[in-house]
Specification:
Helices cover about 20% and strands about 25% of the residues. It contains two helices and eight strands. Mean pLDDT is about 85; it is low at about 1-15 and about 15-45.
């Protein structure tokens, strides 16, 4: 009987020592309790930065885009953004229609591509002038103009989802202003330039058909 008790005590002691060793190893890797110091598993990093947010008073996110902003005579809507990531040097805005496949490929319609928006900007005003390069260095293009191209989905089809994507970058892009004929090539160059430099992203969607 005494031998059995001694054997059980030895097993319990071995289990306790094993657990203590595992705890020590976990602490060495920085895996302590939430809020503890260390770099492992997020320790010591502090709270996550809030996401970039983009809003507009022109329409509700997911709502129908008003006539003022559509078609050949439409003006660009006012856009605002907040919670800009630290270190932002410029912004890129892409408005496109993902419900269209050009030339039976993966490319959709570029309705508005704006890049090198100054990092100090907090938005774009309504009715941005159609100029390939604005006085503050902002560059823009679309499939039809050196600026905004309003939605124009046909009446005999479903709503199209016009998507506004805003990127905060830690650099400006060395992409020259292009012509509408080169909109696809310019867009590809801008998208490539975004890679490795995006600090944040925000998205708005507006629906439209005639």
């Amino acid at each position: 009987m005494r031998r059995k008790m001694l054997g059980a005590s030895a097993i319990a002691m071995a289990l306790m020592l094993s657990a203590a060793a595992a705890t020590a190893q976990d602490a060495a890797r920085g895996g302590g309790a939430p809020g503890a110091g260390g770099q492992g598993r997020g320790g010591g990093r502090g709270p996550a930065a809030p996401p970039l947010v983009m809003t507009t008073t022109a329409f509700e996110d997911g709502g129908v885009i008003p006539a003022k902003f559509v078609g050949a005579m439409g003006v660009s809507p006012e856009l605002k953004w907040t919670q800009v990531p630290m270190g932002t040097q410029s912004f890129v805005l892409l408005m496109h229609d993902p419900d269209v496949a050009l030339q039976r490929g993966t490319l959709d319609v570029t309705h508005w591509l704006v890049w090198n928006i100054p990092g100090t900007a907090t938005g774009l005003p309504e009715g941005v002038m159609p100029m390939a390069e604005l006085p503050d260095g902002t560059r823009q293009v679309s499939l039809r103009a050196a600026g905004y191209m309003g939605p124009g989905a046909p009446a005999n089809g479903p709503y199209h989802h016009y998507t506004f994507e805003l990127y905060a970058l830690d650099a400006k892009l060395d992409v020259p202003a292009g012509t509408p004929q080169d909109a696809a090539t310019t867009r590809a160059a801008v998208i490539k330039g975004i890679e490795g430099h995006a600090l944040g992203k925000a998205v708005l969607v507006g629906r439209f058909h005639q």
